């Protein structure tokens, strides 16, 4: 097996690998958003409802990055 054959095999799945790497960012972002919400509720429990709404909005915006990542995979030859 020469280098050209190996490169051809790798390039066939490069979009999948790219999306896998692109999904790491939103996962970290959601973890931070939820963690900070829990921290905020622990500090001021009376704001739990308001913080929860803001948390869901933050998660939605963070997950939009994952959707952009999968759309990019389809655009560039998934």
Polypeptide structure, described:
It is found in: Cell membrane. With 78 residues, the chain is mostly helical. It has a domain at 25-77. The protein has four helices and no strands. Helix 2 (14-22) runs antiparallel to helix 4. It is elongated and about 50 Å long. The mean pLDDT is 81.
Helix and strand arrangement:
Blueprint: H1 3-11, H2 14-22, H3 24-43, H4 48-75
Helix pairs in contact: 2-4, 3-4
Task: Characterize this entry briefly.
By secondary structure, the chain is an all-alpha fold. It is 85% helix and 0% strand.
Major pleated sheet = none
Sheet/helix structural class: mainly alpha
Overall average residue pLDDT: 81
Low-confidence stretches: none
Radius of gyration: 19 Å
β-sheet strand percentage: under 5%
Contiguous helical run count: 4
The helix content is over 70%
What labels describe this entry?
single chain; 78 residues; mainly alpha; 85% helix
């Amino acid at each position: 097996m020469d280098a050209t054959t190996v490169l051809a095999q790798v390039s066939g799945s490069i979009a999948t690998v790219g999306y896998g790497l692109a999904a790491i960012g939103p996962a970290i972002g959601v973890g931070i958003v939820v963690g900070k919400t829990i921290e905020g509720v622990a500090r001021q429990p009376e704001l739990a409802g308001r913080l929860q709404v803001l948390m869901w909005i933050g998660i939605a915006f963070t997950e939009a990055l994952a959707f952009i990542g999968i759309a990019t995979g389809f655009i560039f030859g998934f």
